[in-house]
Amino acid sequence: MILCACRIIAFVCLTSPVYAQNTSATLLTEENQQKIELAVWKYAVDTPLLLKTIDWLRELTKHSPESTAIAELSRLQFMEAQLERNKNRRIQLFENCVAVADRALALNKNDVRGLFWKAAAMGKMAEDSGIVNALRMIRPMENLLLKVVALDEKYENAGAHRALGRIYHKLPGFPISFGSDQKALMHLKRAHELFPRDVITRAFYAELLYDIGRKEEARKHADFVLATPIADEDALEFAEYVDIALGVINKTGGSKFTVGNN
Prior knowledge:
The chain has twelve helices and no strands. By secondary structure, the protein is mainly α. It has two domains: 2-142, Serine Threonine Protein Phosphatase 5, Tetratricopeptide repeat (Alpha Horseshoe); 196-262, no CATH class. The chain is globular. Mean pLDDT is 88; it is low at 16-24.
């Protein structure tokens, strides 16, 4: 259960770009941000573009004091690590992602992007490294995400709320760990309020609602997920959330819906 909760961090991070964090950093011009967003969106179908963008941003931020630009490099490196099939190499890439996020946070301890992508990479490292590392990392991950919520709850389509909701839902409760359906409901409800059309939130919310006995509400959210068109660029990440929704639907009588596709 703890490894599952850590894995959720990575899932919730992969979503449509949201410009929720305002910044006056000179490197993140509108043109440069759009270049980054394109690489993130297409990372699963255009790896050369992603790697080229990483090299460009790494060079651009080599001597930069701008935490936001450095944190965006961490975000891109997270996407690169997601694609790595070799476990040891993948762990190394996520460690690099954490190191770059730490570089951003050394410049600004409240950099939302750095906090968020560090938590995301830690979740993947915990998933790959086993139960001992999962136990060691889960509280620091929670603290990072709570700080993101306090600073900018809308960042990445309320990604911190989503991640916290999923963690609290999937972790065992006291005395084994700190899972809590009440906390999970609070965070996922808030994420849904902020971004009601977000597929990831709706999938997580559906499963939580089913598990706490609110089956009719759960079914509505699951149906929404299956009815939402999914672009080819999003198919790899969204498959996980579609599977969650299908699980809820299968437990509530089946569905006439087919998975949305553009």
